[in-house]
Write a structure and sequence with these properties.
This protein is mostly helical and about 325 residues long. Helices cover about 80% and strands about 0% of the residues. It has 4 helices and no strands. The radius of gyration is 70 Å and the shape is flat. It starts with about 25 loop residues before the first helix and ends with a helix.
């Protein structure tokens, strides 16, 4: 816990916040012990000599060697005991491992037997439940059969007058051989009526399905025609756009072709002008006439450049001479 008040008192041993009169007992105990208090030697007493120090050191050395030998013997004895204990521990560990394996296998066998017993018990309980359900079903079936038997007896008693009438009809009529024949023919007529009604219903269902199929096919055909019309209109628009684009590019190509043609004509004119200028300059120089060909355009330009430089130098020289003559004439006039 942090301090709150400042420290103002210290006792003789350095304890904080303790009065000196309360620390007298601690001071007396501290003076009486020699372990943590070294008394300085007296100034008039002689110290230990070198021989005495040597003897003390030899004694300490011998005692240390004896202690070392005892500790070494104890360590060897302890090592032997430890090795014996380790071997015993290994044997115990091996025996415990075998016992653990046996117990583990026994536990596994018990678990397997328990699982098999639980599985058998579950199967037997399910089988018992199924048998109970079967017994209940049989009981309900027997009760239903008893009720059906009673109802059948009541129905027989109810239809006895009809049986008498049927026997009288068979006796009077020549068509029926027996009451069973009459009942079979009536059943056949009823079955035929049922089959006819079923066939009628089936045909009506087929007709309705065919009508729905025709409607579906008609809708699909109309949708297909509409899609084809849309595709045709889209193709027509794309064709018109392509045609406009072609006209645009034809105009651009025509301008490009005319520009190329004009450039080619300008090039030919320039080549002809250079060739004519070269021939004119070569007429001045009889020794260089016909030394270059028309396709040696760079050599012709170099020759023309050199000749123009020469002519420029000649013209400058003539101009300078004319100026000097004019100045001389002006001087003479003056």
């Amino acid at each position: 816990m942090p301090r709150v008040k400042p420290t103002k008192k210290v006792d003789v041993l350095g304890n904080l916040d303790l009065r000196p009169e309360e620390a007298v007992g601690d001071y007396i105990c501290s003076k009486q012990q020699d372990k943590f208090f070294v008394k300085p030697p007296n100034s008039d007493s002689a110290g230990d000599s070198i021989e005495l120090i040597f003897v003390n050191n030899v004694r300490e050395h011998d005692s240390m060697i004896q202690l070392q030998e005892e500790m070494l013997a104890s360590a060897k004895r302890q090592a032997k005991m430890n090795s014996t204990r380790v071997r015993a521990m290994h044997k115990i560990q091996e025996r415990l491992r075998k016992r653990f394996i046996e117990v583990n296998s026994f536990i596994k066998d018990c678990v397997d037997k328990k699982q098999a017993a639980e599985k058998t018990a579950a199967e037997e309980s399910i089988y018992h439940q199924e048998l109970g359900e079967g017994i209940e079903n049989f009981k309900s079936s027997i009760s239903e059969l008893k009720a059906f038997r009673e109802a059948l007896k009541a129905t027989v008693r109810e239809f006895q007058p009809y049986e008498k009438v049927l026997n009288e009809v068979v006796k009077v009529s020549d068509i029926f051989d027996s009451p069973k024949d009459c009942i079979d023919r009536c059943d056949a007529l009823m079955l035929a009526q049922v089959e006819i009604s079923q066939l009628d219903q089936t045909k009506l269902t087929e007709i309705e399905e065919m009508r729905q199929r025709m409607v579906h096919i008609t809708n699909e055909a109309s949708l297909t025609v509409l899609g084809l019309k849309n595709d045709l209109s889209r193709l027509e628009r794309s064709y018109n756009e392509s045609r406009l684009q072609c006209h645009k590019w034809e105009k651009i190509l025509a301008k490009t072709k005319s520009a190329i043609t004009n450039g080619y004509m300008d090039k030919n004119r320039t080549l002809d002008a250079v060739a004519n200028l070269y021939r004119l300059l070569c007429r001045r120089r009889v020794d260089l006439a016909g030394k270059t060909f028309s396709y040696e355009f760079e050599e012709q330009l170099d020759f023309i450049k050199n000749e123009v430089e020469i002519l420029s130098g000649v013209l400058e020289q003539i101009n300078s001479e004319t100026e000097t003559k004019q100045e001389a004439r002006d001087d003479t006039v003056c």
